[in-house]
């Protein structure tokens, strides 16, 4: 598939209020599909925020009730949904928590990604993932490179995803104030250096630990910001043509000209 309509949902996440956040996400998703969206992107840990004070209640184990709720919507509307939740699983007689990225396609969980680089306070609560691989959408014949928040600062992650065949790069985030002046160039740089569409989906509002600036963007392989928003809840939708990635790479062949033996 070369032309696809993508929606990024910029939510004000209600801290530790799972049901309210799920209802809000589904309401915005209804708006997105009514406008023809094929892929819907939600912010990092959209259903709870970083609910450190009640991780046991916020976290979920397989089969993940929150993902199951979204799967019903995804199947009914024949759409793809991407986001992350707090995951828990038992390990050596204690609970271990991770930040689990997920990708649903037409109701089926087609892939997950565990955040490999927790940031700051997260390190005290979350285990790190140890695999960075893109997720393939079977029905749409499209490959998604998913990274989470802090990982936008690591060009190696985006590059590995792109070298592994990603057609679209997606960053889901809770990127806080006062770092908007960092978020925007980082998001643009990841698109330019990999010659790929980059959807950078942030949240808005505040929680007990941070305030957020929004700044959700869709950026093309040349670094043009083709959809953008400031603060506040909203849905941005853009139809993209992934063949632009191919023509950009033919014109400026950075992948062919790489010299990995030197670096």
Automatic annotation (TrEMBL):
PANTHER family: DEAMINATED GLUTATHIONE AMIDASE, NITRILASE-RELATED. This is Amidohydrolase. It holds the Pfam family CN_hydrolase. Residues 4-242 form the CN hydrolase domain. It comes from the Archaea.
